Amino acid sequence: MGKTITLPSAPSTAEVYSKAVGAMLPVVGKPAKVRADATIPDRHYRLADVRVDPEQLHAYTRVTGQRFGAVLPLTYPFVLQFPLAMKVMTDNDFPFGAVGSVHVENSIHRLRPIGVDEPLTIDTHAENLREHRKGLLIDMVSEISVGSELVTTQVATFLKQQRTSLSDEPRGPAPKEIAPPPPDAIVSVDLGRIRQYAEASGDRNPIHMGNLPAKAFGFPRAIAHGMWSAATAVANIEAQLPDDVTYTVRFGKPILLPAKVNLYTRRIDGDGNFDMSILDRRKGYPHLTATTRGA
User: Fold this and answer.
1) Which residue among 38, 218, 233, 278 sits deepest, i.e. has the most Cβ atoms within 10 Å of its Cβ?
2) Alpha carbon 77 to chain centroid distance?
3) What's the pTM value of the predicted model, to 2 decimals?
4) What is d(CA 125, CA 114) in angstroms, rounded to the nearest whole number?
């Protein structure tokens, strides 16, 4: 393991987003194209004795539909490690910018539930830069511990869009756009709800905060956070999951706000294994596909 830097407190997400936007500016910013063999800083950021803010957690559960109780919701480790992940991605020697990168996959392996009162240590670093047909992928890995006990590993995979040696590989057939079957639930979301999620989670990426900033980054309107949809999708089955469980999510087309989307949940067996998806209500393409799998 490389150098570990223990921070006195969590980085301000407002500050790191300001730095992230600055990294996009010409001349002073980061390069538009990144080499596939670019060096990833061998640096870990650590926070010790992290305490969950009950009011912030309560706000998070209100906006995602998850339970507010004695243990943390399954997706909350993403929120806890997010400032450290942004700190890694906004360092000057990180090869590409945080704003403009696309969160394409997320995996949370919870070894056991985390009590809301437990003091946590969070260690975050980047690894596994690799080519993809649409650009470069990199993993932001966070380990969350209680004392010396590892309790959760959180991995967020980001895409830097550009041409690579894989760009000309044959594409599979385009998914057919057909009306989806009747959903298990219809989920409604608007800009107000997503701003509430941004406040509760600390993720104030401009593409989520309003139509004008979203248009500046190529979206026709503001979009929902992928991790809001991940939290909402798992909310109704969370009580049925085993203590040791892995929640894996792939994000599809963004949810343009406001929206109503179809939620599907399929039980695989009685061991807490489920398949989930969120689909467009008219054309059936996926916004999210996800699985929970017990150990």
Assistant:
1) 233
2) 10
3) 0.92
4) 21
**pLDDT score for 26:** 47
Q: Which residues pair with 126 in a beta bridge?
A: 140
> How does DSSP classify residue 12?
P
The C-alpha atoms of residue 18 and residue 204 are separated, in whole angstroms, by 10
Quick one: pLDDT at residue 27?
46
> What is the predicted pLDDT for the residue at 23?
54
- Answer CATH for 3-294 from 3.30.230.70, 3.10.129.10, 3.30.750.24, 3.40.50.12780: 3.10.129.10
How many Å apart are CA 293 and CA 274, to the nearest integer?
Answer: 7
Q: Within the chain, which residues score under 70 in pLDDT?
A: 1, 14-29, 175
- In the three-class reduction of DSSP (H, G, I as helix; E, B as strand; rest coil), residue 118 is classed as coil
Tell me what pLDDT residue 18 has: 66
Residue type, 205: N
Residues 180, 289: Cα–Cα separation, whole Å: 14
